[in-house]
Amino acid sequence: MAETKPTAKGMQNLNRLSKPTDRLHLAGTGTGPDYDDQEAAKAKAAISSVYDMIAATWSLGDLWNWGLYDPKLLQEVEEIIPDFTSFGTDGFSELLYFYTLRQVPLDIADYRGKRVLEVGSGIGAGLNFLSRVAGGAEMSGVDISKTAVERANARYSRGEALSYTVGDAESLPFDDGVFDVVINVESSHSYPSLGNFFGEVARVLKPGGYLSLVDAFTEHRANTFNKTMPECARLEWLADNDISPQVSAAVRQRMAPGSYLRQSFAKQRMSPLKRVVGKHGLMAALGAPFTGDASMTPLAKWSRKVSGLAISDKAPVRTYRHYLATRVS
User: What domains does the chain contain, in order, with CATH numbers?
Assistant: First the structure.
């Protein structure tokens, strides 16, 4: 496993860069009169920088989101990819992606010939996994982080079957009406304007196409999301599902002693102080505060702060939800 060397300068940068995005979950951003273009530009620049740093150093295998645990979904995936959790993954992140895709009212076999877009594709592993379970689809990922896209294309791209592009979720670099399905996994919480995002999704979807979205919501972000949903006339919202129990089940298994996450982190080489900071930061990034599994000691809170994750203490996540919408004419 690759060596991870979080530096003091890097931790300071994360703390500094998190401040513009923290405001998305506290107050004062969204659509309408409280939306500020200059603040949005700062938030996007910060997000891009943070994910450039993550993409350049990430070495904990396939842990890219909070994950989801559902025995029936796990069985369905294993019928397609036998023993897929046996090497290099605990499977929870893949199950969250699979859940997101399976909420679209299409059978897996029906994806052949369909075009699927992931907005916020990160380092690319999630969409790569979906390309294996929904064979024959043309899958595209877009992300604001240039480094993440370069890494994704270097590791996973396969011509038209799977490719990744640099782009802004609020100004997608695709033609009108070209995708059958758009998915969005744990990404919308970082968009300054949900209204712009919804408008762009509606634009690139074919009439009758679907948006399937999962994310963690603070109280403020949930209010912003619910306020913005009806403002996009070309999206009809079909489902709103609270999947907090399934996500919490995955998070708790990851936080348990001896878990794949803990074993993977233990193999990383770093100083004792960086190990303490990294442990609390990683646990916060993967949902421990949501399930009550995060330490609340002063050292733990300081570690989350320098890791750029103080927002988990300032504005805790209240719910984890799935939304489904369809593009109407």
Answer: 8-53+268-314 (no CATH), 71-247+317-327 (3.40.50.150)
